């Protein structure tokens, strides 16, 4: 999530150097080889986060299994030692289950939003010695989007997740229950609601002329091969996919990606080569000799944009959003503590504690030069979050020692604090926190300035 | 019957008060034993800062870097004290990331820009440390303040240094951690261990064990090989143990942040 990091990209460059030395047991430190592509925003400091929509929340609340899956999804421990050291979890690339267009890892990414799943970093055995990153996909609506993987080589989401953990990242074999939970979590992530889409994926409501023309063009057979059309693969009534792999001249067989919520999924194509729909339409026009006019292209882009739209794609990141996520994670403890499940409690304490420590860093301490004022409020915020971290640790220690009654008492105290006291303290400190845009900008500008003094002036 | 119960309670309270008084004496003696270590640590930081000022005057970059490292080590060893007793000075001397003065401002120039244009900053650092050094002989070292500082530092040690930590430009964050842990180790065993062992041997054993674990975790060749997860867990277990110890020692539960004065 946050922290005083100058970005994951910077962090991992040092790791790569270590991997080159065949010492892939370590985590990254900023080093002289750190390179941040110009205009790349750092992974950790974005204030807007993709909004996560859960199917189950429409009908009530998320299940224990979904919350456990969410927890595991955001746990670096799931993906093995290298990821654990680097603080990389599934959620690092798939922020709130969406993609992460800002993610850039030197030597593992060709451009922001891509990642080489067969690179040397996490599992040297899976290294194919070629830099061939694929774009990081959004997981919204994954339930409807089989097969899985950019090339669609996995029919089952469970098998795909297992492969990511154990092969791509060399993580330890997950328990069947953990795997089930992660699959349940991913399957619960829905597309963003889009009022422009009616039954069978047709445009509905207030539709512009351009969008209407684009919809017709989308279904129109290609001039040189009437068996083909855009809608033939991106089937509107089927989530804009056909569950098949196709060779569209981009370098192999790749599965049809959905167009739902796709406005927020850039870059496009399996390798993320295109920035926007305009470039994608140009590519198909050239490759399939569609003979599109400028207006046709504009109409198709308007249509794609209408289909790919979604309500409230982002939410402002603040203490409230983080606390909600932490509260969801914490519900797992309500089940795991009474049953004395040491492994799940340890997982929860590790992940939630990490989140709380990162949240703490959103409230700069008195040594931080980026902010002045609100010292008392910041001290209270930091102190209360640290107390929560320690309460969780006491829970973990009590469960490990078989003292479940003590753990339950600590958990009651934890929930009591999280219900009102801590949110109130954090709210009062918010103006002096990194959730405040001005403070945020000053802080990261200061960090960049310091790091640049090292890299530029040498 | 009622009178008997009351008498028993009073006797118990008296016994407890006696135990606390005994603890208090032992702890205050321990705090005094800590003083020479503190004076030595700040003295070492001061000597390093003076050498830094001289080397900067001589435009000797390598020498200035070496002196900065020496000053830094002394400061980090003393953080149990500085975090608990002089947090304002700590904030001034140790400000970051782009401080105008203090250790990290000098660090950026020496280790980042690679120049020795740090005379004014070094002089200010010498002045701060000299003032502090002058006060150390008389300053009241309360066991409570030293436990507060120990606990705060123990928690801080568990913070992720995945980004290179506070001293990322000089690359000395691992040394910072080692010096912090050495400071915790010394403070605990000099001031608190004996008294805690008397009232709860197992808890003393737990604290000692966790400090030993922390030392082992940071005894790696470099920062990338520090096991972050183990470091965090052990740091938190140490803080939990020290919080429990506070009650046994008749002290208040330590707060994790220095209060604003």
UniProtKB/TrEMBL annotation, chain A:
Keyword set includes Signal: yes
One Gene Ontology CC term in the entry: cell envelope
Every Cytochrome c domain range: 64-190, 209-308
Compartments it resides in: Cell envelope
Signal peptide: 1-19
Gene Ontology MF terms in the entry: cytochrome-c peroxidase activity; electron transfer activity; heme binding; metal ion binding
SUPFAM superfamilies attached to this UniProt entry: Cytochrome c
UniProtKB keywords: Heme, Iron, Metal-binding, Oxidoreductase, Signal
Annotated protein name in UniProt: Cytochrome c domain-containing protein
Biological source species: Bradyrhizobium ivorense
From TrEMBL, chain B:
Encoding gene per record: efeM
Organism domain of life: Bacteria
InterPro entries, per the entry: EfeM/EfeO_iron_uptake, Imelysin-like, Imelysin-like_EfeO/Algp7, Imelysin_sf
Domain Imelysin-like: 33-99, 101-244
Leader sequence residues: 1-24
Protein name in the entry: Iron uptake system component EfeM
The UniProt record lists the keyword Signal: yes
Any one annotated GO CC term: cell envelope
Subcellular location: Cell envelope
Cross-referenced Pfam families: Peptidase_M75
Gene3D superfamilies associated with the record: M75 peptidase, HXXE motif (1.20.1420.20)
Family the UniProt entry places it in: Belongs to the EfeM/EfeO family.
Naturally occurring in which organism (per UniProt): Bradyrhizobium ivorense
Sections of the chain in a coiled coil: none
Keywords assigned: Signal
């Amino acid at each position: 999530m946050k922290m005083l990091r100058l970005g994951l990209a910077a962090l991992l460059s040092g790791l790569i150097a270590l991997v080159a030395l065949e010492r892939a047991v370590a985590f990254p430190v900023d080093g002289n080889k750190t390179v941040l592509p110009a205009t790349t925003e750092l992974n950790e400091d974005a204030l807007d986060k993709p909004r996560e929509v859960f199917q189950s929340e429409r009908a009530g609340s998320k299940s224990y299994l979904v919350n456990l899956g969410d927890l595991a999804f955001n746990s670096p421990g799931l993906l093995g030692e290298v990821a654990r050291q680097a603080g990389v979890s599934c959620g690092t690339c798939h922020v709130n289950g969406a993609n992460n267009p800002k993610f850039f890892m030197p030597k593992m990414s060709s451009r922001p939003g891509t990642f080489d799943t067969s690179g040397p970093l996490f599992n040297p055995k899976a290294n194919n010695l070629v830099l061939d990153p694929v774009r990081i996909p959004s997981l919204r609506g994954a339930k409807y989007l089989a097969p899985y993987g950019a090339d669609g080589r996995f029919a089952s989401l469970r098998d795909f997740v297992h492969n990511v953990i154990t092969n791509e990242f060399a993580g330890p074999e997950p328990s069947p229950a953990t795997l089930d939970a992660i699959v349940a979590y991913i399957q619960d992530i829905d597309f963003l609601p889009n009022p422009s889409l009616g039954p069978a994926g047709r445009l509905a409501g207030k539709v512009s002329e351009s969008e209407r023309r684009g919809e017709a063009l989308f279904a129109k057979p290609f001039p040189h091969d009437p068996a083909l059309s855009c809608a033939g693969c991106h089937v509107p009534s089927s989530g804009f996919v056909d569950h098949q792999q196709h060779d569209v001249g981009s370098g192999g067989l790749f599965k049809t990606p959905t167009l739902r919520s796709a406005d927020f999924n850039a870059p496009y194509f399996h390798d993320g080569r295109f920035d926007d729909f305009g470039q994608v339409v140009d590519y198909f026009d050239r490759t399939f000799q569609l003979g599109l006019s400028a207006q046709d292209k504009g109409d198709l882009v308007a249509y794609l944009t209408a289909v790919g739209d979604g309500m409230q794609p982002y939410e402002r990141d603040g203490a409230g959003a983080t606390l909600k996520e932490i509260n969801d994670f914490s519900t797992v403890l309500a089940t795991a503590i009474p049953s004395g499940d040491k492994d799940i409690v340890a997982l929860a304490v590790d992940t939630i504690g990490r989140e709380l420590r990162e949240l703490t860093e959103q409230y700069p301490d008195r040594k931080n030069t980026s902010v002045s004022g609100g010292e008392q409020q910041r001290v209270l915020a930091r102190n209360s979050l640290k107390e929560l971290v320690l309460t969780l640790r006491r829970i973990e220690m009590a469960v490990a020692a078989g003292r479940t009654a003590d753990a339950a008492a600590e958990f009651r105290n934890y929930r009591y604090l999280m219900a009102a006291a801590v949110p109130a303290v954090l709210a009062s400190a918010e103006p002096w926190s990194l959730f405040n845009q001005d403070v945020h900008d000053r802080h990261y500008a200061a960090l960049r300035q310091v790091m640049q003094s090292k890299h530029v002036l040498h | 019957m009622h009178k008997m119960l009351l008498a028993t309670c009073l006797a118990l309270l008296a016994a407890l008060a006696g135990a606390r008084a005994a603890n208090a004496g032992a702890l205050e003696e321990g705090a005094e034993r800590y003083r020479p270590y503190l004076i030595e640590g700040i003295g070492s930081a001061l000597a390093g800062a003076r050498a830094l000022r001289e080397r900067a005057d001589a435009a000797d970059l390598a020498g200035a870097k070496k002196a900065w490292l020496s000053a830094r080590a002394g400061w980090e060893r003393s953080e149990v004290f500085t975090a608990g007793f002089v947090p304002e000075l700590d904030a001034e001397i140790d400000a970051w990331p782009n401080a105008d003065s203090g250790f990290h401002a000098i660090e950026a120039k020496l280790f980042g820009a690679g120049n020795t244009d740090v005379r004014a900053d070094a002089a200010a650092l010498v002045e701060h440390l000299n003032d502090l050094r002058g006060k150390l002989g008389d300053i009241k070292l309360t066991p409570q303040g030293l436990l507060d500082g120990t606990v705060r530092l123990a928690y801080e040690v568990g913070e992720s240094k995945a980004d290179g930590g506070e001293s990322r430009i000089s690359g000395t964050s691992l040394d910072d951690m080692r010096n912090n842990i050495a400071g915790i180790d010394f403070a605990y065993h000099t001031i608190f261990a004996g008294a805690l062992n008397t009232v709860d041997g197992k808890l003393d054993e737990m604290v000692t064990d966790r400090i030993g674990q922390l030392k082992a975790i940071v005894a790696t060749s470099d920062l990338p090989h520090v096991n972050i997860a183990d470091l965090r867990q052990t740091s938190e277990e140490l803080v939990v143990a020290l919080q429990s110890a506070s009650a046994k020692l008749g002290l208040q539960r330590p707060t994790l942040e220095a209060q604003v004065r």
